[in-house]
Design brief:
Elements (H helix, E strand, L loop, with lengths): L2 E4 L4 E5 L2 H8 L8 E4 L2 H4 L10 H6 L3 E4 L5 E4 L3 H8 L5 E6 L9 H7 L2 E3 L11 E5 L4 E3 L2
Parallel strand pairs: 1-7, 3-5, 4-8
Antiparallel strand pairs: 1-2, 2-6, 3-6, 4-5, 8-9
């Protein structure tokens, strides 16, 4: 299933099927997607947070991190979106902005590719999350 929902950052397409998300957007099927998680407990199942960055990750809002294992994860602090994510098996979903690759947000396109729409009345384009790459002790801003 592909869901259209307002995330903590922008209107997004969410699914546990990364290849299908990428195909809908016209991207390479193996292109990485942010994995959004409902809680820090769920995040721990995907990646180990380097000790030097634990406080930063715990306090971060609207920020995604690329972990040493190569996965990009964002722990959602917005209660409404976290509750939505918690409804997925395992409490997580791949997430990407609700637009075709390289194009601006188009609500009609987004609705046409979604199997289900969550909170249609609040969908809007917003700024994507900041992304940082975490090393054991280093940090690098990606976006």
């Amino acid at each position: 299933m592909i869901y259209l929902a307002q995330s903590d950052t922008t209107a997004g397409l969410l699914s546990q099927d990364k290849a299908r998300l990428n195909a809908l957007k016209g991207r390479a099927k193996d292109k990485p997607c942010v994995i959004t998680v409902a809680s820090l407990c769920v995040l721990k199942g995907f990646a180990r947070v380097p000790k030097a960055h634990k406080a930063l990750v715990r306090r971060a809002k609207k920020t995604s991190f690329i972990y040493p294992n190569g996965l990009c994860l964002r722990c959602v602090k917005d209660a409404r979106h976290a509750k939505f994510l918690a409804s997925f098996e395992g409490g997580w979903a791949y997430s990407t902005s609700a637009n075709e690759h390289g194009k601006d947000f188009d609500i009609n396109w987004a609705k046409s590719v979604a199997d289900e729409i969550f909170d249609a009345d609040i969908l809007s384009q917003g700024k994507g999350s900041a992304i940082f790459k975490l090393g054991k002790k280093s940090i690098k801003k990606i976006r």
